[in-house]
Amino acid sequence: MDAEDDSFALFLTHDYTDQNIESLGVGALNGVDSVRFHALVEANTFVSADHKLRFLMARLIYQAPPFDPRGILNRIPLLAENGPCHVQSDLSTKTNPYSWNGQANVDQPTGVGYCYGPTVDYDSGEHNHPHLADRAFFVAEESYGGHYVPAAASYLLKANILRNLSMDAVHINLAGIVVGNELTDPAVQYLHSVDMSFNSYNVSLLNEQAVIDMWKAQPVCHELIMQCQKYRPRCVDAMQLCCGALEGLYYQSGRNPYDIREPCTEENVMKCFHFEHIDQYLNTPSVLDKLGVDVHKSKPWRECDATVGAGFAFDEMLSSADDVKLLLDAGVRVLIYAGDADLMCNWVDNQAWVMELD
């Protein structure tokens, strides 16, 4: 792969390897003492250079009780949702015609998965790939990304102001953010938890008593979330009550909370998606070898991790709405979208917090 070819994009992550695999375009970042890799991901050659975008996409989703807290890692969306290929049940891969790289160049930031190394910030991509500097830059994510996408974008916005004061600094052309089915302003969103019990699919999710219980719990949940904004220890209380008394009842409905059109009786709803073959694929010796994973230092691939998820206990109920306001006031475009069959961070509560921005 030719890094100067405009049909390729930089793809960064804190995963896998300190080896340099030229044939794959992956390897360690120069001078970085940590195990991660970069890869050039081909953008669709039929998309003109003027319309190619650069995206920063992050994947670290926190699932709240009644599951154990867990971090859900970025390889699931990459290999089962909107990545360049999908892993099949026989562990082969199939090209995804709807992948993000049909329109965008993607920078995948640091995260979890196979990675290990010191917690240190590195900023070198713009200097290593100056030909990408003028591209429109978007920060995109879903679900818990409603917290850190606005935060990351507002950080870049403020950093650009400081960069403008420095002659040798690289300006990042921040153009917008894209977030789907996200948790951004919990104090507003949890007030609409019961609304999805009345849905356009006529799916019965709650009995009459459960609806009453949720109506009673919503104002208590709201008050705890408001306290959380000023006093962090209350954030755990808010998370436990809101997730247990509001979300928890939906998990007992026998429907998939991520798609109410589908049944799901598993205690861990992730099992209803049948991602087991992705776990197998990412732990296959030939795949690990090709990626350069040091199996003696890196942990085995796991779909979810309780330790990672627990680290977000004080963060989940905090609001990122002010960051969104800052971006809008600065003229940065914001796209918020939500599926109408998704209970988690559903379209009703997303519409509500967006309207509250006024």
Polypeptide structure, described:
Keywords: Carboxypeptidase, Glycoprotein, Hydrolase, Protease. InterPro entries: AB_hydrolase_fold, Peptidase_S10. Belongs to the peptidase S10 family. 31% of the residues lie in helices and 18% in strands. It is α/β, with parallel strands linked by helices and 358 residues long. A hairpin with a 2-residue loop joins strand 12 (255-256) and strand 13 (259-263). 37% of the residues are buried. The model is unreliable at 1-42, 57-71 and 107-112 (pLDDT under 50).
Number of beta strands: 15
Query: What share of residues are in beta strands?
Result: 15-25%
Structural class: alpha/beta
Number of self-contained structural domains: 1
Give the end-to-end Cα distance, rounded to a whole number of Å.
47 Å
Determine the fraction of residues in helical runs and give it as a percent range: 25-40%
Summarize the helix and strand pattern as letters.
EEEEEEHEEEHEHEHHHEEHHEHHEH
State the strand order across the main sheet. 9-4-10-11-15
- Shape by Cα distribution: globular
User: Taking all residues together, what is the mean pLDDT?
Assistant: 75
CATH superfamily: Alpha/Beta hydrolase fold, catalytic domain
Q: Quick one: CATH class?
A: Alpha Beta
Number of helices: 11
* CATH architecture tag: 3-Layer(aba) Sandwich
* Rg calculated over all Cα atoms: 21 Å
Layout of SSEs?
Blueprint: E1 8-13, E2 26-27, E3 37-42, E4 53-57, E5 60-63, E6 70-73, H1 75-81, E7 85-87, E8 93-95, E9 104-107, H2 125-128, E10 137-142, H3 145-163, E11 174-180, H4 186-189, H5 208-228, H6 233-251, E12 255-256, E13 259-263, H7 276-282, H8 285-291, E14 304-305, H9 306-310, H10 321-329, E15 333-337, H11 347-356
Parallel strand pairs: 4-9, 4-10, 10-11, 11-15
Antiparallel strand pairs: 1-3, 2-3, 5-6, 6-14, 7-8, 12-13
Helix pairs in contact: 3-10, 5-6
